[in-house]
Amino acid sequence: MNNLDPLLTSSYDFKLPEELIATHPVEPRDAAKLLVYDRKTDTVIHTYFYELERYIPKDAALIFNDTKVIKARLYGKKESGGKIELLINRPLNATEINVYIRGKVKVDTKIVFNENLYAKVIRLHEDGSRDVLFFKDDKELRFEELLPVIDKIGHIPLPPYMQREDSSEDEKDYQSVFAQYEGAVAAPTASLHFTKEQHERVCKTFKHAYVTLHVGAGTFKPVEEKEILKHPMHSEYYDISIKALEILDSDTPILCVGTTSTRTVEYYVQHGKKPKGEANLFLHPNNPPQRVNYLLTNFHLPKSTLLMLVASFVGVEKALALYEEAIKKGYRFYSYGDAMLIL
């Protein structure tokens, strides 16, 4: 495992036993395992998430992502009768929405759903995504008008590796206890471990603030290029609260809860300090974090930009060594899996 090239996608590959892919969360949320890695002493501690506060540096401020997952998966049919599955990715403006569609469509294809809702394809992209407009009772909908409709007829967009349909439990489980602003199609998963009680405890003890990054479907896209820098990084809408801006612009050490808040903070710092906009930052060992000191995160897919982000904190070899130890100890991986704290 020595001398892995941090710019080659193959350096981020590892074998994960299928039984370690979590398809349901542990109950209660904070009973998940927690691997704590201290970079200064190069030591690993195995504990549980409910012990998290013991390991957070006393002077650190926590940055949470308060995005809320929408029911982005819709099942419908073409006018010709063929079944279609549509996954909302992100709004492009007030009415145009970028989506992924399972099933063949062309420009002007109309996809019909329940509740007198239909979508019309207006653009096809080479990356496989499509742009659509949504209509209800023949009236074109703005994104905020679409949300209550899909809340009735849509499904929680569980990641593809769970290989199961969503259930009513997922409406609660696949949402953080502090989720507030609708717009994500994937949960910021490190946040899912917090119970309401633990979140309140942590917030009483530590300085903290919220950013909003509406996580897109691109977060699961594996890197298919041989060299990681050729990977087209997806873009996501972010908005940083005034309280978070104060922390970001201070010299307080920052612990980001999740890769999504990490990308938001680092995009702000590295791209002209804009408090809101579109973030498409790619963190990897050759582009390490400049402002974030500590990271709380889950265990991610092989060859994913999220694993590369972890490696931006600890290097490729150490990231893979930590993952190997987690596998040996039976940690559960991915969105409903266990957590790691990098100090």
Structural descriptors:
alpha+beta, 28% strand, 7 helices, Thrombin, subunit H, QueA-like, 343 residues
Tell me the layout of helices and strands.
Elements: E1 33-38, E2 43-48, E3 61-65, E4 67-69, E5 73-78, E6 83-91, E7 96-102, E8 110-112, E9 117-124, E10 129-136, E11 139-140, H1 143-153, H2 168-173, E12 181-184, H3 196-205, E13 207-213, E14 236-240, H4 242-248, E15 254-257, H5 259-270, E16 276-279, E17 294-298, H6 305-314, H7 316-328, E18 339-342
Parallel strand pairs: 1-18, 3-13, 3-15, 4-12, 15-17
Antiparallel strand pairs: 1-2, 5-6, 5-8, 6-7, 7-10, 8-9, 9-10, 10-11, 13-14, 14-16, 17-18
Describe what you observe in this structure.
The protein has a nine-stranded mixed beta sheet. A six-stranded antiparallel barrel has the order 5-6-7-10-9-8. It has a two-stranded parallel ribbon with strand order 4-12. The protein has two domains: 9-69 and 169-342, QueA-like; 73-154, Thrombin, subunit H (Beta Barrel). It has seven helices and 18 strands. The two termini are 23 Å apart. The protein is globular and about 65 Å long. With 343 residues, the chain is an alpha+beta fold. The protein has helices spanning 143-153, 168-173, 196-205, 242-248, 259-270, 305-314, 316-328; strands at 33-38, 43-48, 61-65, 67-69, 73-78, 83-91, 96-102, 110-112, 117-124, 129-136, 139-140, 181-184, 207-213, 236-240, 254-257, 276-279, 294-298, 339-342. A hairpin with a 4-residue loop joins strand 8 and strand 9.
